[in-house]
Amino acid sequence: MNDRHVALVRAFFDALSRGDLDAMAALYHPEVSFGDPIFQEVEGRDKVMAMWQLQLGGRGGLRAEFDDVTADDRSATARWRAHYTFTGTGREVDNPIESFFRFEDEQIIRHHDAFDFKHWSRSALGKPAGLILGWTPGFRKSIRDRARQALEEVAWQG
Question: Are residues 60 and 84 in contact, defined by beta-carbon separation less than 8 angstroms?
């Protein structure tokens, strides 16, 4: 167990919970890459932070609860839950996420979040829409395209 890397991941989630974008940015390497089922791949600290700015600004009260942080000299994993109001429907979302991190120069250089897209869509859209549409490639593409377009319209103000 690498205590420095555990502390770095905990500091990231503490900053995320507070919505402290500057603190989050300080933990990311300038060449960080981020991936998840919606945004897919985002490259570079400015773009990754623009994505987080979009996420934190467009959601009602994002709250992150994390646990099970484990780390070694190169990587870490953490399980967390994102709680927020999905602005498209006004529904409360409780999304379990598993995060994977890699480190370089004592900063996060790779951050990947994995979650069940079908579970997310049921939570965000409700039944029957989320249940019926959540697994379809066309629906996933539509969500991803909207997220990518929104990201192109946001600039990190750090």
Answer: yes
Q: How far apart (Å, rounded) are the C-alpha atoms in residues 92 and 36?
A: 20
CA distance 67 to 27: 19
CATH code: domain 3-152 is 3.10.450.50
- Every domain of the chain and the residues it spans: 3-152
Q: Which one-letter DSSP state was computed for residue 73?
A: S
For residue range 14-48, list pLDDT tens digits in order.
999 888 999 999 999 999 999 999 999 999 999 99
Phi (first) and psi of residue 149, to 5 degrees: -65, -45
- Please say whether the beta carbons of 29 and 105 come within 8 A: yes
